[in-house]
Amino acid sequence: xxxxxxxxxxxxxxxxxxxxxxxxxxxxxxxxxxxxxxxxxxxxxxxxxxxxxxxxxxxxxxxxxxxxxxxxxxxxxxxxxxxxxxxxxxxxxxxxxxxxxxxxxxxxxxxxxxxxxxxxxxxxxxxxxxxxxxxxxxxxxxxxxxxxxxxxxxxxxxxxxxxxxxxxxxxxxxxxxxxxxxxxxxxxxxxxxxxxxxxxxxxxxxxxxxxxxxxxxxxxxxxxxxxxxxxxxxxxxxxxxxxxxxxxxxxxx
Length: 253
Known about the structure:
- The chain is mainly beta and 253 residues long.
- It is built from no helices and 15 strands.
- The protein folds into two domains: 23-129, no CATH class; 163-231 and 239-253, no CATH class.
């Protein structure tokens, strides 16, 4: 006996197992598998993903997101399949050296991925993985604004300070209270806490900056620099220079 195919576009009743004479009604359902009925009464397929490819090494979980197959990892994995993308999951303990044991749940929620991750140390933690805007050149970002790199690396970054001080310069006069940061930024900025000598200035070699809160460094500075340079006939009796104290610790974009 041949069966007829009926295309459902809207339903007038719910699921019913009652059969009328002449066959099932096209206005109702006998059963529904892997689907749901939307507010307009139309049947919809339930979202899901198919595991067709081998997951990248070191990754766990699989969810379809943004047109990609998204996986989770502790460190940036090697992705060779263009269908895959990834998110970095950070353990709350910076010294953690274990692995992701399993991903119990991963699905878009309010536009971003919500994941429940179990680690090899037994902790089960919940993550809501934000999707900040992509960084743009020449853009002012307020403190706590978040951006992602133009080429994704699994991380996003939060601005932690405004108006960073100028980088330290050699042979430059600094006054008490002036603030500088190292030429190679190390997460700290430093204020001049003490100055010796009437024409004291920074030396020709950058000091080794301390990287502890409240740390200080004494700079062997140049005492011959002034607006109209004068050179003493003999070196000073005692060293002159600047003492720097680091102010705050923070990372910038």
